[in-house]
Amino acid sequence: MFMYIILCSMSVLTVALNLLVIISISHFKQLQTPTNLLLLSLAVSDFFVGLLVVFQILLIDGCWFLGDVMCVAYYIVDYVVTSASVETVVLISVDCYVAICEPLRYSMKVTKRRVCISVSGCWIFSFLCVFLVMKNNLQQPGSHNSCQGECVVVFDQFSGLVDVLFFFVGPVSVVLVLYIRVFVVAVSQVRAMRTCAVHGSARVTLKKSELKSARTLGLVGLAFLICLCPYFSVTQTGQEAQFQASSFAFVLFYFNSLLNPLIYALFYPWFRKSAKLIITLQVLRAGSSQINVE
């Protein structure tokens, strides 16, 4: 009963908070910046993760009542949205790196068009990988079940290698390297701002804004690493298809999708303001998309 309450609460909050992020960035023109488009992609994947927790609840007692085809379909959707989420976090770390380490080139390198292409590439890549990884399960759904009511999928050695390299080792390595570099540069910029506090105050203000944004995106990356590493560590034991929904690694992994919008709420004033406008239904007014929410 405790796990039912925890997972149901996580599902409702994850769906609701990420829906607020999706509506905010989609509705308010002012928020449709390259960085926020990346956050929009992450919110979409986190939104679907919140919905998938409902199906994970069905597995608490190890019983699946929706049939073998729906079992495979569930794992396909889960794989696509979680892998797209992982790849989007990598893009966010790249965006943060360029903003802090190459600020003068940021507007030229990071454009809405390039971000849209990159995000689309992440989702397409996730769709392609899922058919490569799940090909054996797609051919014979339920063939790995040992008894009726199980929902089991099995990765062969090659599929497992692809999964680990492209959605764990690769992304984690990139995120760690980029954020370490961002941290080093950010520290040097803070020192520079302290020595130039009197002269060039306009530039100092701009740098403070950049550093604050980098700190927020850095927290997103840190939360990603903390929640992802235990999950993949457990799945590599060879028992990934038989984990219960109540396992700590699974709960922590899904909790990351709830944690992201909470980070936005704490550190992004635009999210708090836009959420208030959405909840009070002021977004239904004519011209509301032009409201200043910064």
Task: Put the structure in a nutshell.
The chain is mainly alpha-helical.
Largest sheet: none
What integer value in Å does the Rg equal?
A: 21 Å
Helical coverage, percent range:
over 70%
Strand content: under 5%
Secondary structure category? mainly alpha
CATH superfamily: Rhodopsin 7-helix transmembrane proteins
Please name the CATH topology.
Rhopdopsin 7-helix transmembrane proteins
Shape: globular
- Secondary structure tally: strands: 0
Distance between the termini: 42 Å
User: What's the CATH class label?
Assistant: Mainly Alpha
Overall pLDDT confidence: 79
List the domain count as a whole number. 1
Report the total helices: 10
H/E series: HHHHHHHHHH
* Low-confidence region ranges: 201-206, 239-246
Keywords: Cell membrane, G-protein coupled receptor, Membrane, Receptor, Transducer, Transmembrane, Transmembrane helix
Transmembrane segments: 6-25, 37-60, 72-94, 115-134, 164-184, 216-234, 246-267
GO biological process, one term: G protein-coupled receptor signaling pathway
Membrane topology: Multi-pass membrane protein
